[in-house]
Amino acid sequence: MRLFLAMTGLAICALASSFLFREFNFGSSELKFIADFGFGGMTLFGSALAIIVTAQLFLGEIEHRTAMTLLAKPVFRSEFVLGKFLGVWVTVACFIGMLTLCLVLALWMRESSIRLEYPEGFEQGQRLVQYGGIIWFSLAQVFRIGILCALVILFSTYATSSLFAMVMGVLVWIVGQLQHIAIEARGVVDSLVLKGIYSAVGFALPNFHLYDVGEGLAMGEVLPISLVGKLLLYGALYSAFYLAVATASFNRREL
Predict the structure, then answer these.
(1) Is the full-model pTM beyond 0.90?
(2) Which of 31, 54, 60, 214 is the most buried (most CB within 10 A)?
(3) CB 186 within 8 A of CB 195
(4) Are residues 85 and 147 in contact, defined by beta-carbon separation less than 8 angstroms?
(5) What count of other Cβ atoms lies within 10 Å of the Cβ of residue 144?
(6) CA-to-CA distance for 202 and 186, rounded, in angstroms?
(7) Sign, Cα dihedral of 73, 74, 78, 79
(8) pLDDT reported for residue 187
């Protein structure tokens, strides 16, 4: 799909533009500004690519009747759903990997130039950027994208058009980014009805805000191993849950 190359080029251009806007860093250090710019690009472009590619790939098989050819063979519908999920997930993971490589390269180039300009300001072997933190952030985004792909596949199993699945994917992504507000509101309201609504939303939809761990990671902060494990387990459980529901929905769909 040409969309993959187009999104990759657009994301790399957006990352490169961080060098043009580094004077408008609102008081943060230059390297942190570039890292935050790259983290934002991973989240935004990765989520957009996941939503569009998942909806088009899954529903494209149905609209072009190629799904019937596959399912006429000894292939279960659950295998069809899982295969589409893994295909899209690995594709977007490669996209995140390429952006990670570009971000590491951009930070390394700028760090090297700063060292050449101010050699007296750094100790021998001192690192301005902890590149391991960038890898951890990228891994967290891969699991966030996995949840999003599984959700869009769920919508695609009963949608009649890819546009509907994309719109629902965008809405759920927005709600997931803001879900922590509902969790905080649940603790301050007195109404049992509102508490029940907030609890239902908190369980049914993922909290994507948990994966916004980029603040300070590139500049030396270390994620606790327990938090990393929690994020990976959280993504795996929600992805498995949505894929199970998607399989049940797709089994009842007439092709």
Answers:
(1) no
(2) 54
(3) yes
(4) no
(5) 27
(6) 9
(7) negative
(8) 66
- The two three-digit tokens of residue 16, written as one number: 């490169």
How far does Cα 142 stand from its chain's mean position?
Answer: 6
Mapped to the 3 state alphabet, what secondary structure does the chain carry? CHHHHHHHHHHHHHHHHHHCCCCCCCCCCHHHHHHHHHHHHHHHHHHHHHHHHHHHHHHHHHHCCHHHHHHCCCCCHHHHHHHHHHHHHHHHHHHHHHHHHHHHHHHHHHHHHHHHHCHHHCCCCCCCCCHHHHHHHHHHHHHHHHHHHHHHHHHHCCCCCHHHHHHHHHHHHHHHHHHHHHHHHHCCCCCHHHHHHHHHHHHHCCCHHHHCCCCCCCCCCCCCHHHHHHHHHHHHHHHHHHHHHHHHHHHCCCC
Q: Which two tokens stand for residue 212?
A: 């916004």
Residue 227 has pLDDT above 90, yes or no: no
In this predicted model, what pLDDT tens digit does every residue of 54-72 receive, in sequence order? Answer: 998 888 888 888 888 888 8
Contacts of 117 (CB under 8 A, 6+ apart): none
Distances (CA, A) of 142 to 47, 94, 139: 10, 9, 5
Tokens for 177, please give them. Answer: 């980014």
| Residue showing tokens 């546009």 | 163
Residue extents of the structural domains in the chain: 2-251
Residue with tokens 């295909």: 87
